[in-house]
Prior knowledge:
By secondary structure, the chain is an all-beta fold.
Amino acid sequence: MWRATLRQDSPGVIYEQLKYEQQNSVAAATAFQSYSRNAYAFTATHEIGPGTFRGLYARAQSGKLQLAGGGECLASGLGARQYSLGYSYTFSKRTDLYGFYTRVANDPNATYQFANAAGIGAAAGAANVGYLLGIAAHVLIAKSPLSGAVVCRSFFCTPTLILRRRKPLRMFSFR
């Protein structure tokens, strides 16, 4: 991850290489052996007074799939794009209010979804839209008398509304 700070603006770039491998020597010739894909994201923030605008564009590429028998398998349509726009307002050193809009648009065979929606399952090719509004409270836990180091813990209370296939799903996330 790379991030630069230019006065009130902070552009950033994230790059990820993902690889899964199966080590089962008795797998059928048509079974999955390995899958790899690349992903990247461009981020930006812009501070205006006590608030910060935030944006992200991300793309996961389709990748490559290998079968245990040595053949290749078609992996097209397994990518996705994510768009996020948000704003956070700082009330004090320890309290922020934030809101975000996020859309994950899957390619025809992909099933990407929101991390806090794990287990729900996205339909192949579905677009997931989420609206998020929350409060972050950063609590001072301890301060070292020798080094002056501060230990903080952040608590997020985030009611999240996820829209998937035109059916709203309400979730609450506490981290």
